[in-house]
Amino acid sequence: MARERTFLARLASNTAIGFVGNVIQRGLSFIATLILARGLGGEGFGLYSYVVSYMFLFAFLGDLGVERVVTREVARDPARAGELLGSALVVKLALSGLAMIAAVATALAIGMERAAFHCVVLASLGLPMSIELIFRGYFQSRYQVAYTYAINLPTTLIFIAGALAVVALGLPVYALFIVGLATAPLILAALFWLSRYRMQLRFEPRWRTMRGMLRDSAALGGFIFLFALSMRLDQLMLHHLSGDLAVGWYAVGVRLSEALGLVPEALMMTLFPLLVSSEHAAPERFHHTYRLGFKYLAAASVLFATLLTILREPVVVLLFGPDYVPAAPSLAVLAWNMFFGYLGVIYLSLFIAQARQRLLLFVSAVALAVNIVLNLLWIPPYGATGAAAATLAANAAGFACWLILIETRPYMITCMRESWRSLAAAGIVALGLWESGISGMPAGLLFVALYPALLWVLGGVLWSDVHLVQRLFATQNAQGVS
Q: 0.90 exceeded by the pTM?
């Protein structure tokens, strides 16, 4: 009994640390965004966002899902952690080197403008130093996310200081990437120092292990690349179809909705390794873990989405200034993309844990195709708002695919069963506010007060869920945790 209580306390502590750390990390990153948006202006911020989106794709090519594979394998077999991490680092370095070459070569091939190309070259040089993802996978698998934030938070503060200097001195946008490149060695030095005490890395090449990682991560990496492409393609197409100013407006909604993504990300630092280790060893725990994840992430996403819809213009003016008011419509659309994003963190992690790489590739390809077609149709007449609508429609198409597929339908039915109350509660309250003519800040405050109350009445939140979690972890032995 003591072991189970210790394990539950460890999960709760890991989740709390992950949430608080993610709040601070996202908060600091968002402060950097505000500094850059106000200091660089619409076009400068648009150029920066375009390059970040471009490099986002090649960063994923340099990972190919290795981080997730490491998390999964270490959670299953902690005794092999040193071998797995050493082999993963070799694979990651090789992939990052190829991604660096591909990023620069692609920029040359498409005739990228000089200012953007200079930024891409600098950002590419940092790709081989992005191996901190492997360490993050290890700490996630061992429920020790505090070590990740002990490294990342100071480096984020360094970047904020650099961003302030760039803005204050009026330096060109590429100076921001010099700052990022300068901080990467600091992260690596700290991680390798820490690894001396927490891990026993083995840098002897284990070709069999490396081949297995590449095999597992190739299909998973294809899914991640397509998923990343669907997340960033809209900004790339906006840049070429509408210019940097439209990208700057659109990036407001992207950065704000991504900042609010801290809730599911913090939760999955604990849930992903837990799902991997309990699917066969503790089926009841496995089922209730993802079921409750669906329920409460749906409630949180609908709350944030509705508030951003109601307060879209005041939020934009308050955070980014009056020059960014045209970003309000795209912010409202992208806010509802959080509903699919929050729930997707659960069901995509489920399918990754179950090694459904082929289905992940198929659904990602469908969503990407929808995204491309709708961006081509909607960006020319509607600009940033059209790109936001295309992204939302593409994610809805992906959700529909998972619901149709026989292998994944049971999980998606559970997802819908656990999330409809949140949508119903938000719809009823929002309709009441609209009928009464209340808008702006009063409407936002009323929604915050009424939505949780109605959600409780509908059974969307229950005290019995807390007791269920306690019972599950008090009656079943923890597996694979040391």
A: no
Interhelix angle 244-259/2-61, rounded to 10 degrees, is: 170
pLDDT in tens, 340-384: 989 988 888 888 777 787 888 888 889 989 999 999 999 999 999
Q: Which amino acid, 379?
A: I
Do 355 and 275 form a contact (C-beta atoms < 8 A)? no
Give SS3 for 480. coil
Q: Find tokens 């991490």 and name the residue.
A: 85
CA 264 to chain centroid, in Å, comes to: 8
213 by Cβ neighbours in 10 Å (0-12 / 13-18 / 19+) ranks as: buried
Which region holds residue 457: left if phi is over 0, alpha if psi is between -120 and 50, else beta?
alpha
CA separation, residue 244 to residues 26, 64, 248, 412, 427 (Å): 24, 29, 6, 38, 35
- Of 188, 166, 455, residue with least CA distance to 303: 455
Amino acid type, 86: G
Q: How many residues does the chain have?
A: 482
